[in-house]
Specification:
Blueprint: H1 3-28, H2 37-41, E1 49-52, E2 58-62, E3 66-67, H3 77-87, H4 99-108, H5 118-127, H6 136-156, H7 159-169, E4 176-177, H8 179-187, H9 196-205, H10 218-234, H11 240-247, H12 266-282, E5 299-302, H13 306-328, H14 331-335, H15 343-350, H16 354-361, H17 366-372, E6 377-381, E7 390-394, H18 396-404, E8 408-414, E9 421-425, E10 443-445, H19 451-462, E11 469-471, E12 475-476, E13 482-483, E14 494-496, H20 497-502, H21 506-516, H22 522-533, E15 553-555, H23 556-563, E16 571-573, E17 578-582, E18 588-591, E19 596-598, H24 602-617, E20 634-639, E21 645-651, E22 656-662, H25 679-682, H26 684-695, H27 743-746
Parallel strand pairs: 1-5, 3-4
Antiparallel strand pairs: 1-2, 5-17, 6-7, 8-9, 8-22, 10-15, 11-14, 12-13, 16-19, 17-18, 20-21, 21-22
Length: 805
């Protein structure tokens, strides 16, 4: 053998050995981490956590990358055929590596097609963090890693399972991952129901999700769809005649993507997300790691009723658009003098805008940035219409004023017996105003809505009854001050306690407060204890005598819990909005049950109910009957000083709801003597519009206008309030919600409430696919969130089963 031949064979075998060693080094992870056999057999993907409404409809998701897994049997054969025809014609003939495609790619330097098989692409999606690099040597290493993983995948999964893995991990456009999310987002269909054209469109997107997105580039998407159809003909999945007919159809999509601003109840989902983050920090998976809301595919089943949520949002839109028109017609708002003395608030707001921060990052000086806020520009701003926005031209400074002058609201509805929250509206528009006005951390002065709680204490602990005579006189608490602060609204008259509540008499309430315990500040101390230990309030309340007429700040969420003891026949119940949490496989991680406890007697609760019915029959809330409501309803209006806060707490035997209306800035309010700023006009209509909608919906279970509050057995007769019916309503007074007026003059002739669609998308599905909330889901039902930025998603498949190859 010649020396040259020896050198050749030496180099050849050294090359072969080096190549084999290189493969082993790749497999051992020397050139980057490689998945273990356990990882290969049980690949995991970041999945979107899903939030379900009471009826089983999906109302929203939490994710970094929007993905929900689906099984092979739930994928249309058209999708599978289109994918194989377009991405890997020999998929069913190779074992992860297609030598023919590889040689073709090398020969044509990639011009005639790549060497990656579907299995290699799946490996890339699952385990190699989907590297994108222009470095030739890194890309070669990457390819070999993909091939090694692809071979292992072929050994551990069937071809159908590999296709499922691929379809569950790839991106389809608009940052939507997984075939189920893609078909639901672009067509509002499950992936087993898409037709051939829809399948071709979806598969066409995986090659270049942005370029072939039908929403962004319809012409290119159409051409790409037709290319996929041609590939299906080439691979004998379709005939020439079939394709001609299919190509004649234009692209038709029904696009609807769920994100933080869309879906049902965006304010609720924001609060829910914060609660779930805390839950995840306190609960660990079997591997010892904490759950991740955005990656672990949790399924969160809530108590939200989709119909009630939509009715609540419609009620808010209808009334708040009307209230804003009234407010904007106020002279100091039109002239801008409402901001006099508060210019510092506007300047602080200016520095919180995206415009200011962006220009600041670019290095512009503060004085130069400020000048840009006085230059008119085109912009979109919030508006009370169905789109919740309008195009306009104004200075950025004026846009800040415009937004801060918007009246806000919070509205929550719950079942008073179970505590299950049925509807949650935290503001007027989540897209523009994300601050939630319902949750525990948002507290406002409650005004006269505190009085039913005080009257409950007076009956329970001091022997009062609705017919106990009280004096409408200002009360002195010595060193702790006078209540109320002035005697302007005091009549000096004697009246039954029921009348004092019906007409929200501050002075009479102060009298009752002092009768409970007249020594020093003892009444305030006892009332704070009652609010904390009986009503369930967690807010720290200072024991000042003025709390008797609502000077304290409490969240709407807590007020609903406190009020639950009244329709709850003496039982207080904590609001409950999470019913259970499951993992991605449908295993129940935690169930949540009502937390109820008896805090007052049923005689006390019934006594207060009857008095609160008087509020609506002849008191401050008597205009509620002009809103097409019926049946037994009890409620209480509330207004704080200078109309800064307007409240209404109302309930039936089956529903309890609370409304707050005001501005984030307390000086943004209706004029002091303007009755439109009081609880009966600013807040109560939202509750009334909502309940009227509920009464007209026969599909709402458990809403019966003929239901009645149950009288305790120990009471032989009802309380007699006939003597109050002929009492002339007193005139309005600052800080007291008199609610003067009749249904005829309630709505000015030139400004009428508008019927606007709810903020949420209507996700109610009138079909059999909705999953009952009381049935445990199986593995077929998707699960959830996604990945860290830059980290490649990984799909979920079952462990290898005997017989799988």
């Amino acid at each position: 053998m010649s020396k040259a031949v020896k050198i050749f064979w030496r180099i050849f075998f050294i090359g072969i050995g080096s190549f084999i060693l290189f493969l082993f080094l790749c497999n051992w992870g020397l050139f980057g981490e490689m998945p273990s056999i356990e990882d290969i057999q049980n690949p995991t993907a970041s999945l979107s956590s899903q939030v379900y409404a009471q009826d089983g409809n999906l109302m929203g998701k939490f994710y970094v990358e929007d993905r929900i897994n689906v099984e092979f049997k739930d994928i249309s054969k058209h999708i599978v055929n289109a994918l194989v025809a377009t991405e890997d014609e020999r998929f069913y003939k190779h074992s992860g590596i297609d030598l023919r495609s590889m040689l073709r790619a090398v020969k044509g330097l990639g011009r005639d097609g790549g060497a990656s098989t579907l299995t290699m692409q799946t490996a890339k999606n699952l385990f190699t963090e989907n590297w994108a690099t222009k470095n030739f040597f890194l890309r070669v290493i990457q390819k070999f890693k993909e091939m090694i993983i692809a071979v292992k995948l072929e050994k551990n999964f069937t071809k159908d399972e590999i296709i499922t893995l691929y379809l569950n991990t790839v991106e389809y456009g608009d940052h939507v991952y997984g075939i189920r999310n893609a078909s639901k987002t672009f067509f509002q269909k499950e992936p087993d129901r898409v037709d051939i054209n829809e399948a071709a469109l979806l598969v066409g997107m995986v090659n270049a999700p942005y370029l072939y997105n039908p929403r962004r580039n319809p012409k290119k998407a159409l051409d790409r769809r037709n290319t996929v159809l041609d590939q299906m003909v080439r691979n004998e999945f379709l005939t020439d005649q079939e394709v001609l007919a299919l190509k004649s159809h234009p692209i038709e999509i029904n696009y609807k993507k769920l994100d933080e601003t869309t879906g049902l109840g965006p304010y609720f989902r924001m609060v829910l997300g914060e609660d779930m983050k805390k839950w995840c920090k306190e609960h660990k998976k079997s591997d010892g790691d904490n759950y991740d809301l955005y990656r672990d595919g949790l399924k969160i089943y809530t108590s939200i009723d989709p119909r009630m949520q939509l009715y609540a949002e419609e009620a808010v839109a209808k009334h708040m658009s009307y209230m804003q028109k009234l407010f904007n017609s106020q002279q100091n708002v039109k002239s801008g003098t409402i901001w006099k003395g508060y210019e510092n608030v506007l300047e602080a707001s200016v520095k919180q805008t995206d415009r200011w921060r962006s220009l600041k990052r670019e290095g512009m000086k503060d004085e130069d940035i400020r000048k840009t806020f006085d230059v008119p520009v085109r912009m979109k701003v919030f508006a009370w219409n169905n789109n919740r926005e309008k195009d306009t031209v104004m200075t950025p400074y004026d846009s800040v004023k415009y937004c801060r002058q918007m009246l806000q609201t919070g509205f929550m509805v719950m079942d008073p017996l179970s505590g299950e929250v049925r509807a949650w509206v935290g503001g007027i528009d989540f897209k523009t105003f994300k601050y939630d006005h319902v949750n525990y951390n948002t507290k406002r002065q409650v005004g006269s809505t505190i009085k039913p709680l005080l009257y409950s204490m007076a009956i329970e602990e001091a022997g009062f009854t609705p017919n106990t005579i009280v004096h409408d006189e200002q009360q002195s608490f010595g060193a702790y001050g006078m209540v109320p602060a002035t005697s302007t609204s005091c009549t000096g008259a004697e009246m039954p306690m029921a009348e004092a509540l019906a007409f929200s008499r501050n002075c009479a309430t102060a009298y009752i407060f002092k009768q409970i315990d007249g020594k020093g500040n003892n009444a305030a101390i006892r009332f704070v204890d009652f609010l904390k230990n009986k009503c369930g309030l967690l807010t720290k309340i200072q024991p000042h005598p003025s709390i008797a007429i609502g000077s304290c700040e409490i969240s709407l969420y807590e007020m609903l819990q406190a009020y639950s003891m009244l329709p709850g026949r003496g039982f207080n119940v904590k609001p409950l909005y999470i019913k259970r949490i499951e993992d991605k496989n449908g295993n129940v991680l935690e169930n949540f049950s009502p937390v109820r406890r008896e805090v007052i007697s049923d005689v006390t609760s019934y006594s207060v109910i009857k008095m609160m019915q008087g509020v609506l029959q002849f008191g401050t809330g008597r205009n509620i009957w002009s809103f097409d409501v019926q049946g037994e309803i009890a409620g209480k209006t509330g207004t704080t000083n200078d109309n800064s806060d307007a409240w209404f707490m109302g309930y039936t035997p089956q529903l309890l709801g609370g409304v707050w209306v005001g501005s984030d800035d307390r000086f943004i309010r209706f004029a002091k003597n303007d009755l439109n700023g009081q609880g009966a006009r600013a807040a109560m209509p939202i509750w009334a519009y909502f309940y009227a909608k509920c009464l007209k919906d026969p599909k709402l279970l458990g809403i019966d206008p003929n239901s009645t509050f149950v009288r305790p057995d120990v009471l032989n007769t009802d309380f007699n309030f006939d003597n109050l019916n002929n009492i002339k309503p007193p005139s309005g007074a600052e800080g007291e919600d008199m609610g003067n007026g009749t249904s005829q003059d309630y709505v000015p002739a030139d400004i009428k409430p508008e019927d606007l669609k709810p903020e949420s998308e209507n996700i109610i599905e009138e079909n059999k696919t909705a999953q009952p909330a009381n049935k445990q889901k199986d593995n077929k039902q998707p699960a959830p969130p996604a990945n860290k930025p830059g980290q490649q998603p990984k799909a979920t498949m079952p462990a290898k089963k005997p017989g799988n190859r």
